[in-house]
Amino acid sequence: MNVQVAVLCDAATDDRGKLNLLGAFDTICAPRMPVVHPQCAVALRLTFTTADEGAHRLQLNLMDADGRPIVPPLEIGFEIYLPEETHFATRNFIFNMQQVSFPAPGLYAVDIRMDGEALVSIPLQVRKLSGSGDSDPQDSASS
Question: Pick from 10, 28, 33, 70: most CB atoms within 10 A?
């Protein structure tokens, strides 16, 4: 199994196997805390081989720097089967999250596990703006 894409973004869709991403980000800026982020998605694109055939469980955990969950874990089950003469299969996974509350500035992470094993971790920083001139143009997810 290979992770091709693991990203936090404003929105994602799967169009017949094509993964479409809108607004990938790693920072949320807000003038006050806690901040509620209205909508975002975690998009994954994974490639599997015949060695990966069978049933699997994918789990997503959004946690603070101390490992405390921010939202309840999101979990899905799926099966991988490759037809004969197929070398690999790619699957897209999209986890939509709404009204996520971040209690304080700091480092957060979206940790993703498959079958109980760590797969990938997506870092997220939440920053408190101290004034109107502190905006960073790369903070596409500013609230």
Answer: 28
